[in-house]
Amino acid sequence: MKIAIGSDHGGFVLKEIVKGYLIDKGYDIEDLGCDSNESVDYPDFALKVAEKVSSGAFEKGILMCGTGIGISISANKVKGIRAALCHDHLTASLAARHNNANILCMGGRTTGPETAKDIVEAWLNTSFEGGRHSRRLAKIAEMECKK
Ligand code: RB5
User: What is the C-alpha to C-alpha distance for residues 73 and 14, in angstroms, rounded to an integer?
Assistant: First the structure.
């Protein structure tokens, strides 16, 4: 599976940890930055990753900023993106099962490395349930077509 990953400076350290973890697991990861702790603007990296997922070039994306809030708000502005900010195993598995989230967001200043790995595993290894949840996602997609 091809996964695009990105962060701002607040998520940089966690991004490097999550990236290494997933590469070791055999995932095909493309890192779209940032590349250091130097201050940058999170919408720039949200857009890079979200566009890769929205275009279909990548099946999933992972984004991190300090809290995960700004980068998830930004990613959700891109058509077709369902970015979910997750804090634990339960929110991550439900983001996959109910929301079919195609981008996972986490906070580098709020979530520790071991919890982050657990979140990523839960999100990647849980399938979308479909059914009534598909109807709800279709309504979200309709909202994207309105002005
Ligand atoms: C950057 O200092 C910080 O605001 C950002 O990483 C993120 O937490 C925003 O939501």
Answer: 19
